[in-house]
TrEMBL record:
Pfam family, one: RibD_C
GO MF assignments: 5-amino-6-(5-phosphoribosylamino)uracil reductase activity
Span of domain Bacterial bifunctional deaminase-reductase C-terminal: 2-176
Domain of life: Bacteria
Record GO biological process: riboflavin biosynthetic process
PANTHER family from the UniProt entry: 2,5-DIAMINO-6-RIBOSYLAMINO-4(3H)-PYRIMIDINONE 5'-PHOSPHATE REDUCTASE, DIHYDROFOLATE REDUCTASE FAMILY PROTEIN (AFU_ORTHOLOGUE AFUA_8G06820)
Name used for this protein in its record: Deaminase-reductase domain-containing protein
Length: 189
């Protein structure tokens, strides 16, 4: 049976996006963090994105193999681009030009059950506050990985708004001293 991991970036005060969805607080020139992300991507079967996040990332990652913004992006681009992308959208006609990709969301509970019933490497929920919240509401997340950035936003979109209470078990806490980011890994109890 396969597991579903939620990997996301949050601020110290719990925001996953700033006002109007701004992500400009995500800044980390940290090769150790890039190595962690590369290892994570090498170990998963597919990535889950919300539609808006998919569309935003599709503007950058396909070209990042030839024109990366950072050395870390040069390393990550083939992994991000090569993995299948599952795009959560209620629109059955949503355009998915960044391949390989397919839409999920027609019957999310059933699709999650189907994904989890298969053997294989984990599926990673990687981008989108609403998508992360929906997977948490569906009680589908087996492992939660929070990259906590040393930033206080004070406003924006909180990751856990509208999510039911759950008890988690801390598996690991790994600091990335260069950037000040700390990875917190939790599993369900």
């Amino acid at each position: 049976m396969r597991t579903i991991m939620l990997q996301t970036m949050v601020t110290l005060d719990g925001y996953a996006a700033g006002p109007d969805g701004a992500l400009d607080w995500i800044e980390a020139d940290d090769s150790a963090l890039d190595d962690y992300l590369a290892g994570l991507l090498r170990g998963v079967a597919a990535q889950v994105y919300g539609r808006a996040s998919y569309e935003l990332l599709a503007q950058y990652w396909p070209g990042a193999q030839q024109n990366p913004a950072t050395p870390g992006d040069a390393m990550l681009a083939p992994l991000v681009n090569g993995l299948p992308k599952l795009v959560l959208s209620s629109d059955p006609q949503v355009a998915l030009p960044w391949q390989p990709a397919r839409r999920i969301g027609g019957n999310l509970a059933g699709e999650i059950d189907e994904l989890k019933s298969e053997d294989g490497r984990p599926i990673i929920v990687f981008a989108g506050v609403r998508t992360a919240q929906e997977f948490l509401r569906q009680d589908a997340v087996d492992e939660l990985r929070l990259l906590v950035f040393p930033v206080l936003l004070g406003e924006g979109r909180r990751l856990f708004d509208g999510v039911p209470a759950q008890r988690l078990h801390l598996v690991d806490a790994e600091p990335f001293p260069k950037s000040g980011v700390v990875l917190h890994t939790y599993r369900r109890q």
